[in-house]
Amino acid sequence: MAGGAAPPLPAQGTDFPFYDGRPLALGARQWLAVLLVAMAAYGALHIPSVAAMRVLGGWPALIPALAFPALPLLALRAVAGPQWQQLFRPVGWRDVRLAVGLVLLNIVVTVAVALLVSQLFGAVPNPVVKALAAMGTAEKIVFLACTIPHLIGEEILTVLPFLARLTWLAGPLAWPRRRAIVGAWVVSAVLFGALHLPTYGWNVAQSLVIISVSRMVLWLAYLRTKNLSVASLAHILNDGLLLGLAFLLGALIN
Length: 254
What we know:
This protein is mainly alpha-helical. Helix content is 71%, strand content 0%.
């Protein structure tokens, strides 16, 4: 504002980073570069040689699991410098309670939506459950070790498109902040569901409804805290609970 004092910057974590030029502005080309790296990192998981490394197991499977979250963060660091750290902050007990509460809410909502969708359109079982049943103890340990960075990678794969869309909606399109947040939230969740189409046999309803709704519920952790550490914790707790049930079922079946 000409002739006046500049508006004060919000404290770290009180708002989403980058979309309004704080702590720095990222242009369309910068966002495009970051998103392309993020999608390439996800796509690399499905390259035959990489997929074989993951399926065959063993500690080499950690390489693609760690590269999945690391590459997009490196791309963000290249365009944002040390401000990339705005995505992650320490987690407090209140954050843990929020994450646990959202996991419980997500289970209730997802089960209700899944029952409805499966009755109307059918559903494909998660192939991970079947794979776990055939794994030995050592393979399960490696699988769990790979799961944590992979889930963090999925959070990064959600937050980067979310912030890029928020930048576009609140900037060039001049949407009101709340409307821009909701728009970016919904679109990011639907795209996240679309990424799971191959996993669920291209069942559109299962991927774009069940997975997208689950993504929207868990993503409330980030919308509430602006802290990807909390969102990652909620995702890890959610999938950890589901995997624990799968382990239990596999033990009972065997």
